[in-house]
UniProtKB/TrEMBL annotation:
Residues 223-251 are annotated as: Disordered. It comes from Noviherbaspirillum pedocola. This is Relaxase domain-containing protein. Residues 25-265 form the TrwC relaxase domain. Residues 225-235 have a biased composition (Polar residues).
Length: 357
């Protein structure tokens, strides 16, 4: 499930100043509100702290007491995608990851809003503009090359009367599994277009071109980041060293950063010198199934088991079955609508449509 954390006003952003592996794109602001605040370029810590402190001018209208200033999310690429992208140098996979993250954020943005009294009852009102700070990262913080994106969603928006208020973030906290499935669905769609074989089931998703021995070799390594002071190192990974001692008791030095990863990759799998996970193929496209086709197929495949499942469980099966074959807009709403309609027809009045809230 998508990692999600609450962010306080004194939140520090340690990854803002860390060096990165190659292929990093600039971090950026997104959502529309950045123009109101004059936020341009790469997000900086002073800018982020200013927004967290709600130093935005005007009157801050609180919602449900002291609202959390922001939410922090991490979109992490599967291990095999990270290995192939950062070690084998498959830059297409980095672009695929970033495009999938963007699709998930677009999906989220269209559903964010605030609670307001409309016609005598409390309703969810879509927010015209929100604010994200997005950090695309390639690092060695885990035991294997780690391709991921850190996202801060600031908990504020403007009401129709131009007053500031907090977002209704319950949709995000309840729908984390759906957001991650949107990310993986979009990633799978890109991999399919590039003819990169992937393994997908209800528990895991990854490319299949990476030998399990290689995965285990990287996963078993221990990393000790060292500080970097040279400005020339700002675009590459932190210096790394393997934990080990020579007979004389001195620390054993090994190649650092990207060169070290590449060396370990080649030692584990010499054939990786010419490694490629697939070429883009065209001309073999088939007709896309409709959202209704997917829902009907899932319900038929599950049979009686579907009767006892909650709507979110069935939606998970539908999105997994989709495997990126249907365009993003269809994934957004049509699958959910067809599924909700089918469940209501079966007499399940308690189904909760997290996508259409």
């Amino acid at each position: 499930m998508l990692p999600l954390a609450l962010v306080s006003a004194d939140f520090s952003v340690p990854y803002l100043d860390r060096p990165y592996l190659p292929y990093r794109r600039h971090s950026f602001w997104y959502g529309g509100l950045q123009d109101r605040f004059g936020l341009v370029g790469v997000p900086t810590l002073p800018q982020i702290q200013r927004v967290l402190a709600r130093d935005i001018g005007g009157t801050w209208a609180r919602q449900r007491g002291n609202a959390t200033p922001a939410l922090h999310m991490t979109f992490a690429a599967p291990q095999g995608v990270g290995l192939a992208a950062l070690v084998a140098g498959e830059e297409r996979l980095i672009a695929a990851h970033e495009d999938a993250v963007q699709a998930s954020l677009d999906f989220m943005r269209r559903r964010l809003g605030y609670r307001a009294r409309v016609g005598g009852k409390t309703s969810h009102v879509p927010a015209a503009e929100v604010l994200f700070a997005i950090f695309h990262r390639c690092s060695l913080e885990s035991a294997s090359p780690y391709l991921h994106t850190q996202v801060l969603l600031f908990n504020l928006c403007r009401r129709s009367d131009e007053a500031w208020t907090a977002l209704g973030t319950g949709l995000i906290t309840r729908g984390r599994a759906v957001l991650e499935l949107v990310y993986r669905t979009e990633l799978a769609r890109y991999l399919d277009a590039c003819s990169i074989p992937a393994r997908w089931d209800t528990e895991a998703f990854d490319i299949v071109s990476i030998d399990e021995n290689i995965r285990a070799r990287f996963a078993g390594r221990k990393w000790t980041p060292e500080s970097t002071t040279s400005e020339s190192n700002r675009s590459v990974a932190p210096l790394e060293k393997e934990r080990g001692r020579t007979p004389a008791g001195k620390a054993k030095r090994v190649p650092t950063g990207y060169a070290f990863l590449r060396q370990q990759w080649l030692q584990a799998w010499p054939e990786a010198e010419g490694f490629a996970v697939g070429e883009v193929e065209t001309g073999n496209m088939v007709a896309e199934p409709t959202a209704q086709d997917i829902v009907v197929g899932v319900l038929n495949a599950l049979g009686p088991e579907a009767q006892g499942m909650k709507h979110q469980q069935l939606l998970r099966h539908a999105l997994v079955a989709n495997r990126g074959m249907v365009a993003a807009e269809a994934v957004d709403r049509q699958i959910a609508e067809h599924l909700a309609r089918d469940l209501r027809a079966r007499g399940n009045e308690k189904c909760f449509d997290v996508l259409a809230e």
